[in-house]
Amino acid sequence: MPVLQRVVKPTTRKGKKVLLAREPKVIEDPKRALLIRGRKTNETTTNMLKDIYSMKKLHAMMLNKRNDFMPFENIVPVENLLTKECSSLFLFASHNKKRPNNIIFGRTYDSHLLDMVEVGVESYRGLSEFPGEKVMVGTKPIINFIGDFESNLDLVTTKSLLADMFCGERHVSAVSLAGLEHVLTFTSDVKSGKIHARSYRIRLKKSGQRTPRVELEEIGPSFGLVLRRTKIASADLMKIACRTPQEAKNRPKKNITKNVLGTTLGRVHIKKQRIDKLQTRKLKGLRKTAEERKAERKALIQKRRKMPKS
Q1: Which domains can be identified in the chain, with CATH numbers?
Q2: Any idea of the CA torsion for 51, 55, 57, 58, to the nearest 10 degrees?
Q3: How far is residue 62's CA from residue 34's CA, in Å, rounded to a whole number?
Q4: What's the predicted TM-score (pTM) here?
Q5: How far is the C-alpha of 270 from the C-alpha of 79, rounded, in Å?
Q6: Model pLDDT for residues 140-189, shown as the tens digit of each residue
């Protein structure tokens, strides 16, 4: 039996503005992440949530209240929280005897679950354990995936979720060399089945040449992930979620070329113009005299008389 969805109609100007902001756009806003604490968390999972929040402070929100639910058993409370906070990504932390140091990465599409991955955190070192200067909040990182992330569907989904969680701003028109400060690396170890995550700060130093010498300084956090459970979206649903609107597609422009000097030239095709029918400005000096109008009427009458009767 199909489920009927309630259509929400705004009653105030502010409510209308909120509903309009939730509608689909040609160029979507940066994805917001919601960081959720489960029924029980330990020091490792709590510190990981705080460190990820400090890295994504512009596009994230952390809930300090504990929540008595599990996403793999019941995803509805998570979907309700994401809809309320206008977020599409979530990070759920919990800790128990069966699954210690448990973290769930997930995302939604159209306010419903798309996919999620449950991992265990090992050998965690937070931001506070690394001395030195950190990167600015909002810096777009360079994400580097090392190893075999294409061997199975679980790793492909994990790679996609990690890229979505840490990519920051998606639509960037230009990148400055001085703005490249942060590098995130995720290394897949096939033998142990772990994913090692490291965070580095880029330092540009003098090299005596035009291009600077690049050095990497580890700034944290540093941790290892072990895959536990996954919930992968179907191929049809993923195709719909990744569909690009027609307005955002780059279509080639016809009849536009560039010459050697870089000047853009356009060719315009127009229909044949009937100059005698064009409406021009009616100037007083161009008006026909009474004699000319009288002669035109006589010529028109004579032309009609000569026409054969049908």
Answers
A1: 31-230 (3.40.50.10480)
A2: -170
A3: 6
A4: 0.76
A5: 55
A6: 899 999 998 988 899 999 999 999 999 888 777 777 777 789 999 999 98
